[in-house]
Write the structure tokens for this entry.
Amino acid sequence: MLIIYREKKELQNQELLVLERNEINHIKALRLKDDDEILVSDGEGKAYKSKLKYPDKLIINYKEIILEQKKQNVTICSAIPSGNRLEKMIDMAVQLGITNYIPVIYRYSERKDFSIERIKKIIRQASSQCGRLTLANIYAPIRFQDIFQYYKHKIMLFADKNPEHKISFNELVQISKRK
């Protein structure tokens, strides 16, 4: 079933929802008809069953609520990949169930910025594709040293292609303080 995302304030007591152009194109591509059911989600785990009023409106039924169970919080912190690799990574990570993405700027990072709005659009598309009612969060880029301020008492896993590089969390914190 197709899922359309709207912010909570847009959904409050609004029985008729006007669709955006890209959503209308998606509906046409799926060959949905008048009175077909679509879910409208607030992106926080709550969705409402709605009926399509072709071609550009939905009637929201606030009595039929679907709730998504909260799953474990999974955050990915990574350097910002170049080219379209960031978009592919976000798409796959969202479909696998991440809840947060934090881009990290390292001392020698080549790419330091990207369009957060573009990434939010990819998150919506990927969430709709896999049927998630909860949208992943995206944050502004932070420096590597700042990661440890946010995640002091959490489990952190670092990927390294070289297996002989073993380092404890405390050693990693000390290295990050050196600059």
